[in-house]
Amino acid sequence: MKIRIRFAACMFVCVKLLVCSACVFAQEGDSKREFRAWAVGGGFATVNFDTKMKIEPYDSDLPIFIDLEGNLDLPSTNAIQTIFAEYTLSPRHQFSASYFGARRDSDIQLANFKLPDAVYLRAYIQTKDRTRFVNLHYKFTAFNNGYNKISAFAGIFLLDIDLSLDAIGTLEGGSSELLEKRSEVAKATAPLPLIGFQIESKLTEKWSISTMFSAITGSYDGDNATISQTRINTTYDINPRWVGMGGVTYFDAHVKIFSKSESQKIEYGYKGLYFGLGYRF
Length: 281
Hints:
Number of helices: 1
Helix content: under 10%
Strand order of the largest sheet: 1-3-4-7-8-9-10-11-12-13
Shape: elongated
Distance between the termini: 51 Å
Order of helices and strands: HEEEEEEEEEEEEE
Radius of gyration: 22 Å
């Protein structure tokens, strides 16, 4: 039985929140830096994933727990690429967009593997993660004295959960040696509201550090999600146009997906380091 549901709520835009840390500092006392309205860039993150799935059939009291990294050998550490774009209307007003996508695959052989109404013997299991995140938001700078800045932001977070599992094996207790195949797909796409804040400090003329927290919660088409993300960023102004960035990130999502026969609870999280490069023009 194949379950296909669309869902969304996305993130990983912070790699861009730092890129214009200096860009939005066009103000008195910092006339040496030329104001640049647009910024684009990209980078990569080396993160450690933690993904769990709980399948609860409506006609059974026995849920099935699946640890995709622990039990099914889905890569827990991966290098992920990200891109962003940013437009600064004025030192107080800014619009941002970013994209991040996971791409993980695994193949594993198990003596037996349990799914909601069957146990597969000598099971061959393939799992895939094609989850994507998109973040669109507006940021308002409430305080900026040239050295410290406090901003709040709000927007739309698109989380496109896309996890699939294919199990092939002989059913337990079956008299036939013919292979049976079973697929489980957790897929959901939906726009969810995002809010957050950022605190930034200039350490030197070229170095800045910032802390960002964002929260996303809501429901769409019967499915619901709660997401939090925290990032600590450092940026370095290479010259008036180029900026380097790096930091640590933490992401935690709890998603519940419903179908006609079962519900799926997804825990999708990661933490790690990221590095990138931005260009202002």
